[in-house]
């Protein structure tokens, strides 16, 4: 194993586990001997990782040099995400959120095409892919094609695959409640762009894909899209994520543009340079 990866994981472990311990979501790890396992990362000690079987709940300590390179990169990504979560300040006190109407508890998602809740009516659908919890600035894409961005500072880790979700009106605000989480968060609608629109205009969304390998977010990074556009990250936000030609969504947020990449919940501020 390359010394760089070993040093990086060790450094990440010190930052993460000096602040808090969080159980990770089930992840596939492969070893140099050709075997593999699905487990949760629950701890790091020195140059070893503690994994927990999601079924039996038993834990195993595995030295870092037993993992193959792909799994080591995946481990770095997991630790990096948790540093990002653990260092996010909660600037508002915890408060009781209103519960959704009873009829919104239906487990079968309704594929409504309305762009926003009207009056007291709720939207019932499901998250399009993986859900990793609440965090300010996260963008949630629904099965019905809608996109909503979290605007409050509620921080909550919760992993689920395509959970049911409802959005409802609470006075002048819109609230979103996800299956398996008691509290709701404040969100705002991101309008979908018309078909064939090549650029983000107003509050609309431009969809394309990054035209090469994607290694994550970092301030100053240049992202070239398959539609010919080139965007540069202006926000100071670091996130390690390895992907090939991931989908990218760019939308207007006030006076700036934001970009969300497939597989990452958080959207970063960007500016168009071509």
Brief write-up:
With 274 residues, this protein is mostly beta strands. The chain has helices at residues 3-17, 69-86, and strands spanning 27-30, 36-45, 48-52, 59-63, 123-126, 130-134, 139-141, 147-150, 156-161, 164-170, 173-178, 185-190, 205-209, 213-217, 222-224, 230-233, 239-244, 247-253, 256-261, 268-272. It has two helices and 20 strands.
Structure characteristics:
274 residues, SH3 type barrels, six-stranded antiparallel beta sheet, 2 helices, 20 strands, globular
What would your notes on this structure say?
- The chain has 274 residues and is mainly β.
- The chain folds into 3 domains: 84 residues, SH3 type barrels; 89 residues, no CATH class; 68 residues, no CATH class.
- The protein contains 2 helices and 20 strands.
- The strands form 5 sheets. Strands 5-10-11-12-8-7 form a 6-stranded antiparallel sheet, with no helix packed on it. It has a 6-stranded antiparallel sheet with strand order 13-18-19-20-16-15, with no helix packed on it. The protein has a 4-stranded antiparallel sheet with strand order 1-2-3-4.
- The longest helix is centred in the N-terminal third of the chain and has 18 residues.
- Order of neighbouring strands in the sheet with most strands: 5-10-11-12-8-7
Strand content: 35-45%
* Overall average residue pLDDT: 75
Shape: globular
Largest beta-sheet details: 6 strands, antiparallel
The domain tally reads 3
**Gyration radius, in Å:** 20 Å
Element pattern in H and E: HEEEEHEEEEEEEEEEEEEEEE
Low-confidence parts, pLDDT < 50 over ≥5 residues?
18-22, 106-116, 192-203
- How many extended strands? 20
Cα end-to-end separation: 39 Å
Q: Kindly name the structural category.
A: mainly beta
Q: What is the helix fraction of residues, given as a range?
A: 10-25%
Number of contiguous helices:
2
């Amino acid at each position: 194993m390359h010394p760089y990866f070993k040093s990086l994981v060790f450094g990440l472990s010190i930052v993460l586990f000096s602040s808090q311990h969080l159980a990770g979501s089930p992840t596939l790890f492969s070893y140099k001997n050709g075997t593999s396992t699905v487990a949760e990362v629950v701890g790091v000690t020195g140059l070893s990782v503690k994994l927990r079987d999601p079924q039996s709940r038993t834990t195993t300590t595995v030295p870092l040099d037993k993992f193959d390179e792909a799994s080591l990169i995946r481990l770095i990504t997991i630790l990096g995400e948790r540093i990002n979560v653990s260092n996010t300040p909660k600037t508002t006190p915890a408060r009781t959120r209103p519960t959704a109407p009873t009829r919104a508890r239906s487990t079968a998602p309704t594929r409504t095409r309305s762009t926003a809740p009207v009056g007291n009516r709720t939207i019932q659908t499901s998250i399009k892919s993986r859900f990793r919890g609440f965090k300010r600035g996260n963008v949630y894409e629904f099965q019905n094609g809608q996109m909503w961005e979290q605007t409050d500072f509620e921080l909550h880790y919760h992993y689920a695959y395509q959970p049911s979700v409802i959005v409802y009106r609470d006075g002048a605000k819109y609230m979103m409640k996800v299956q398996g989480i008691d509290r709701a968060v404040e969100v705002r609608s991101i309008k979908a762009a018309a078909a064939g629109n090549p650029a983000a205009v107003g509050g609309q969304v431009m969809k394309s894909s990054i035209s090469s390998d994607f290694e994550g977010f970092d301030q100053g990074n240049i992202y070239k899209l398959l539609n010919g556009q080139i965007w540069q990250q202006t926000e100071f936000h670091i996130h390690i994520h390895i992907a090939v030609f991931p989908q990218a969504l760019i939308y207007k947020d006030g006076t700036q543009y934001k970009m969300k990449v497939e597989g990452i919940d958080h959207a970063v501020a960007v500016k168009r340079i071509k």
